[in-house]
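step=encode ok
step=design start
structure_in=
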């Protein structure tokens, strides 16, 4: 079993298709099939279950996928360790959906200015999957909101921002400069779907403040949340960086203690950290987070 066979296997496992994997790898499908057949012959059992339109991993395949990924990652890290000049190399950054659209563009602009010879891979996903990828070595750095279950990962808080209440411009509460928990009781609340840590944070805040709101809708994108608020569908809690400048939405602070979230940079301290990765992590730790967001001062009382 050689490294090329392991890479072929991992690509088929990732895509669930021999056809798509052969296209991405640039090898013929018969050659790819022979490579997987050799692996299965060596192991004495199948690693894929062939279904009508896709292939899925068998139990043996799942074990092989985990080990193969570790082997490939270790081999890929060798050049990074040997050629560690702090300027060249590839950095893989992940960010959650309530952060990525707002912070990554200015961060990448600054990073490209500072490290012009580096290459960048970006992944947007929910917290759990990003942490799994960071733990396994698929990602070098993750930007997410605390608290999270870090396990063996390290983190450093780099920013704290307020969660504001977004409401339609003509809502009865629009005349109040500050909202109290009882103001939101019975109000329809638009939330992101399950798997988004922001929803968990908002749920926890509502429980602490005894806010008896009605969870009316759940969406996958913050942009959809804001569009629904603008349409008069309900209210929502929105991170400061996500506040838009549309006149259809107003933003109000809650009475103290105001809801906030902490944003952290997360990395795997048990894996090799190149000089470039350490430099990018330092850049994130000292980044001017006032540059992040769709507006520097969201519209409030009019």
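sequence_out=
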């Amino acid at each position: 079993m050689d490294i090329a066979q392991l890479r072929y296997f991992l690509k088929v496992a990732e895509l669930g298709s021999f056809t798509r994997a052969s296209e991405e790898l640039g090898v013929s499908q018969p050659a790819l099939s022979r490579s997987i057949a050799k692996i299965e012959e060596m192991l004495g059992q199948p690693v894929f279950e062939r279904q009508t339109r896709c292939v899925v991993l068998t139990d043996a395949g799942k074990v092989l996928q985990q080990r193969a990924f570790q082997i490939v990652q270790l081999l890929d890290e060798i050049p990074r360790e040997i050629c560690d000049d702090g300027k060249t190399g590839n950095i893989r950054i992940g960010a959650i959906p309530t952060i990525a659209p707002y912070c990554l563009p200015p961060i990448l602009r600054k990073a490209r200015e500072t490290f012009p010879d580096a290459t960048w891979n970006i992944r947007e996903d929910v917290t759990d999957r990003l942490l799994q990828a960071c733990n396994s070595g698929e990602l070098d750095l993750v930007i997410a909101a605390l608290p999270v279950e870090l396990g063996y990962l390290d983190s450093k808080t780099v920013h704290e921002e307020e969660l504001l209440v977004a409401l339609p411009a003509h809502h009865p509460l629009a005349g109040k400069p500050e909202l109290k928990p009882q103001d939101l009781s019975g109000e329809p609340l638009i939330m992101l779907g399950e798997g988004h840590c922001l929803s968990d944070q908002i749920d926890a805040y509502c429980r602490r403040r005894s806010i008896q709101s009605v969870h009316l809708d759940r969406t996958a994108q913050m942009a959809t949340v804001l569009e629904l608020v603008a349409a008069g569908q309900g209210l929502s809690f929105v991170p400061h960086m996500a506040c838009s400048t549309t006149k259809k939405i107003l933003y109000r602070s809650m009475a103290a203690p105001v809801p906030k979230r902490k944003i952290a940079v997360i990395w795997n301290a048990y894996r090799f950290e190149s000089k470039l990765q350490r430099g990018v992590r330092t850049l994130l730790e000292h980044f001017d987070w006032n540059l992040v967001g769709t507006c520097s001062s969201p519209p409030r009382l009019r």
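step=design ok
step=annotate ok -> The chain has three domains: 3-81, 85-158+262-291, 162-259.
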